[in-house]
TrEMBL record:
N-terminal signal peptide: none
Entry-linked CDD domains: MFS_MMR_MDR_like
Regions crossing the membrane: 18-40, 55-73, 85-103, 109-132, 144-165, 171-193, 205-224, 236-254, 275-298, 310-327, 339-358, 364-387, 461-480
A GO molecular function held by the record: transmembrane transporter activity
Annotated protein name in UniProt: DHA2 family efflux MFS transporter permease subunit
Key word Transmembrane helix present: yes
Domain Major facilitator superfamily (MFS) profile: residue ranges: 18-485
Domain of life: Bacteria
Predominant location category: membrane
Annotated Pfam families: MFS_1
GO BP terms, alphabetized: response to antibiotic
A single GO cellular-component term on record: plasma membrane
Listed InterPro entries: EmrB-like, MFS, MFS_dom, MFS_trans_sf, Sugar_transporter_CS
Length: 509
């Protein structure tokens, strides 16, 4: 499909104001991923949610969000990104109000699933709006720097906010807090955002693709979630993985054959975007493991309150903001993206490596703080070009679904990270207790053994996270080659030369 040039159009004068509302919406979605974790024990007690069902407060959201992301991205391309963005915000606010007002388990789980549905509309629309509104290299770098810092650091901010709200108000406010975010972002977007009209994809919706991708991703996310609670050899877990493989394989075959695919394979097969989706998904596996284990370590082993735990993550947030806005943004238009992504992931791996030295009496200032700074700097530096490259060189009609792939890789990475690393930690903890139980004969010794076994489990899992980050770095170095041919546009399947039409230059010169 030929693209009409838009180079004669002046940049939207309200684009920077639009960025504020897009960033606010992204912050709300990322916050929600961690803020509810802090509030979960209180909500479970209040609503009488059983121990076996408590994971569904997290899982209901993850299944709806992860399963519907590609569909949400395609709706944004078809229906218009601004309209999809505003609809997603209003729906997310309504679902959050329902969750905050929940009087029983069913109402809570329904609200979480609805949050996931509207989040799947909102997240890809937000990123694709940035892709089509910021087309000049330096401005694009700044915009994606801000977005990358929020995407990377928002989870840690959620821990702080969740701690404050749970400790000083009550768990319901971890839901209600989304409402002002959503209303401000929706009102601002409605009046400020002006989406380029030529970027729509009005092809008929690929219904078989929607069904196969949604069921395949739901089966995959549920398989990993169930593996965490019931084990990797559980019959349902294994069935979910097999079903996911069959459904996703059928989805790929379908997309190669249908006239108007949900996910055009040209979005995936371009090596730079493929490298970004893969390396970003792996990095998120490692990051989710860190948030999980460091939160447990600080609260259970060190005895920190929820608020103090949240503040303990501030060095990582600071590092991410500096890495994304000061290092990534300043260098993105000067060096090849892989020279930011690969070293960024490696620096994060070194920070993670420090955390393998955790002990019961480890000094926060001496080890945890510098480790978090390195993790934040590395991730911020890598996330920024990754977010930009994920939609770089795509045709305008594919921007929504390309953005959805970034969110899908993060969501699936998060589900895999939580299940995989938690299982590794639990196995190492059990093994340590078995080996040392005979020597723990007094209550004090048994208490010490319990704490030591937890730390052993965390460090065992963190070693895996180090390896995963090293692999992410290697993938970025090998697959991401944009900028190697100074100024050569990235081909996009049947959309060659689309950078000229979009004024999206290659990010390295």
């Amino acid at each position: 499909m030929s693209q009409s040039p838009v180079t004669s159009l002046a940049p939207d004068p309200k684009r920077w104001r639009a960025l504020v509302f897009i960033a606010l919406a992204q912050l709300m979605v990322v916050l929600d991923a961690t803020i509810v974790n802090i509030a979960l024990p209180s909500a479970q007690e209040d609503l009488g949610i059983s121990e076996g069902n408590k994971q569904w407060v997290i899982t209901a959201y993850a299944l709806a969000f992860g399963g519907l992301l590609l569909f949400g991205g395609r709706i944004a391309d078809l229906w218009g990104r601004k309209r999809t963005f505003v609809t997603g915000l209003i729906g997310f606010a309504a679902a959050s109000a329902l969750g905050g007002a929940a009087g029983n388990e069913a109402m809570m789980l329904g609200a979480r699933a609805l949050q996931g549905v509207f989040g799947a509309l909102l997240a890809p629309a937000a990123l694709s709006l940035l892709a089509v509104m910021f087309t000049e290299a330096k401005e694009r770098a700044k915009a994606f720097g801000i977005y990358g810092a929020i995407a990377g650091g928002g989870g840690a901010v959620g821990l702080i906010l969740g701690g404050f709200l749970t400790e000083y108000l009550n768990w319901r406010w971890t839901f209600f807090v989304n409402i002002p975010f959503a209303i401000i972002a929706a009102a601002g977007a409605y009046f400020v955002i002006r989406e380029p009209s030529e970027g729509r994809n009005r092809s008929p919706l690929d219904i078989p693709g929607v069904v196969l991708s949604t069921l395949g991703l739901v089966a995959l996310v549920y398989g990993f979630t169930r593996a965490e609670s019931d084990g990797w050899s559980d019959a349902v877990t294994v069935t979910m993985f097999i079903a996911s493989a069959v459904l996703l394989a059928a989805f790929v075959v379908t997309e190669a054959k249908v006239k108007s695919p949900l996910l055009p394979l040209r979005v995936l097969t371009e090596r730079n975007r493929g490298g970004v989706y893969l390396s970003l998904g792996l990095a998120i596996i490692a990051m989710f493991g860190l948030f999980l284990f460091l939160t447990y370590y600080l609260q259970i082993v060190k005895g920190y309150s929820p608020v103090k735990t949240g503040f303990a993550f501030l060095p990582m947030i600071f590092g991410m903001i500096v890495g994304s806005t000061q290092i990534g943004t300043r260098l993105m238009t000067r060096v090849a993206p892989r020279l930011l992504m690969a070293p960024g992931f490696l620096l994060a791996a070194v920070g993670m490596l420090l955390l393998t030295q955790l002990e019961i009496d480890t000094s926060y200032a001496g080890l945890i703080l510098p480790a978090q700074l390195m993790l934040g700097l590395g991730m911020g530096t890598a996330f920024m070009p990754a977010m930009s490259l994920a939609t770089h060189g795509v045709e305008p009609r594919d921007a929504g679904v390309a953005s959805a792939m970034v969110n899908t890789s993060q969501q699936v990475g998060g589900a895999i990270g939580t299940a995989l690393l938690n299982t590794i930690a639990a196995s190492a903890t059990t093994a340590y207790i078995t080996d040392h139980a005979a020597s723990a004969t007094t209550p004090a010794a048994q208490k010490l053994l319990a704490a030591q076994s937890m730390v052993e489990g965390y460090t065992a899992a963190i070693w895996w996270a180090v390896g995963i980050l090293v692999v992410a770095s290697a993938i970025a170095a090998v697959l991401v080659n944009t900028g190697a041919d100074s100024g050569t546009p990235v081909a996009s399947g049947d959309g060659e030369g689309v950078e000229d039409a979009l004024k999206i230059p290659v990010v390295a010169h």
